[in-house]
Amino acid sequence: MRLKFTGASIYNPTTKAFDKELFSDDGFVASPGTFDQEITLEPGFVFPAFRDGHAHPVFAGREAAGPAVSKATSIAEIQAILSSYRKANPDQVWIEGGAYDRSIVEGGIFQATWLDEAVSDVPVVLHASDHHTVWVNSKALELIPTPLPQLISGSIDVNSSGAPTGVLREPQAMALVLDKAPARTIEQEVAVLAWADQVLAKQGIVEAQDAWITPGMTEIYLAAISKGALQLDYNMAFKIEPHEWVKSLEFAKADRDKVIALGSSQLSAKTCKFFADGVFGSGTASVLEPYLDDVHNHGEPLWSKSELEAACLEASEAGFQLHIHAIGDAGVRQALDAIEHVQQRLGMPALPNVIAHAELISDTDIARFAKLNVIANMQPLWAQADGMLMSCVPRLGIERIDQMYRMRDLIVSGAVIAFGSDWPVSSSDPILGIATAVTRQTADDKPEGGWTIEQAITADEAFASYSSAVSFQLTGKKSVPLSVGQPCDFILLDKNPLEIVSSALREIKVLATFKAGKNLAKH
Asked: Could you state, in order of their start, the residue ranges of all structural domains in the chain?
């Protein structure tokens, strides 16, 4: 059916101007002509739909089903939330939620006994806002074997007697408790994914990259799509484990075959996810210069140079896109080196490779992104001087803090920045991410004038980073959204983001989300 949309001002990314009509032909924008149906939009401004280049919808849905402590500003507040949750859910044998702000306690040192004061009869697991750390109660600590196992990566906080105190850092340590969680039914898993899908649709998102797929998660997507429970399109990135990467890659290829067999345009499995390092909050992000609070610590590179290069080469030979988590400047350099190693042997890939987060980049590595056609998938909501960022000052020093999230430098160098939320690490709302990328300020407009404002980008650039740039990440095709022959994916906004003052950007409302010409979410 050929559709004609009228009644709103429609942004044309080619001309940077506004049109009055938008045509859709079988889900693609078509040139003007005869049409079967006219759809009148309410007054507003039509822009290309958003896409999220790095998110965790399943994790977000699971976490949302538990106690919500993300807005808590004290231990007492977290304890009150947990107590209320336990009273409302007396039959639950496992409590898991998040995401607590690790900056509310100096040094991020949390104690299991604090959680015991709220809930002591069943295991409690709270994810930190960086999602590389969990804080658990004493009942959960009982699940960890004694003596404590030797870890290849990650750590368990212990007291002077060597007993765990309640904080587990990085995936291998976290798994000591998380792997003991009661199994969820496929119906429960589909429900949490469908919830996440609806949240994203209401925020103007029509496609997302799930950046962490481990065994059992593909089946959630397959079941959800088979049941018609999802509206968005998804690409899955299979997590490749550093110390058993051959096995991980076999899993990725086998699950990719399952997705291909399903034959749904809503689901693809093009990508492999690697972790080069950890995070700054735990002192595990890999850095060129040591951490100030531990001169012997350069972070925790999760791969040797040769192993990462070998694994990336084999994944690329198998036809997968590389999506590498790298936060510290040494981690970013190692990721770039691995990608360069692969390209020297295989040439430029059809799908551009991706470095996710890229929080701290050495001056000498900025130009390599464009040279290697590597997309910097950045999380714009992190580019603000909030408690999370400032809590890293003792560890990194203000000079390195002020060198983070170099969006303007990357764009000037010719690199492509694609935005992702890393939801549930931060909000999935692109409007909030765009506002932060443009103002470099917190929600209460701090600091005045913006933090490292020289790295701010324009509203037009930020919208492109959440739309055409993510489309390029997922398809390898540089297209102009809302132009003839492109998918008719658009959002209706209540204000024109290109004309209002930047401080008002975060107040913009998404009135409707259209995917292939179909209204997804009634707002």
From this structure: 58-178, 186-507
Q: For position 368, what pLDDT does the model report?
A: 98
| DSSP for residue 103 | G
List Cβ neighbours of 487 (8 Å cut-off, separation of 6 or more).
27, 28, 29, 481, 515, 516
Q: Going by CATH, does the domain composed of 186-507 fall within 3.20.20.140?
A: yes
AA identity, residue 458: T
Largest CA distance in the chain: 79
| Residue ranges in the chain modelled with pLDDT below 70 | 521-523
Pick from 418, 399, 406: nearest CA to 359:
406
Query: What is the side-by-side strand order in the sheet with 354-357?
Result: 50-55, 205-213, 233-239, 267-275, 321-326, 354-357, 375-378, 417-419
- Rounded Cα distance between 492 and 46, Å, is 5
CATH of domain 58-178: 3.10.310.70
Number of H helices, E strands in the chain: 18, 21
Query: Who's near 76: CB < 8 A, 6+ residues apart?
Result: none
- On the question of a common fold for 58-178 and 186-507, the answer reads no
Beta bridge partners of 294: 291
What pLDDT score was predicted for residue 1?
87
Residue that is written with structure tokens 């983001």 in the block: 497
CA-CA distance, 185 to 218, in Å (whole number)?
14
Cβ contact 4:471 at 8 Å: no
Task: Give me the pLDDT at residue 16, please.
Answer: 86
Global pTM value: 0.94
CA distance 120 to 135: 14
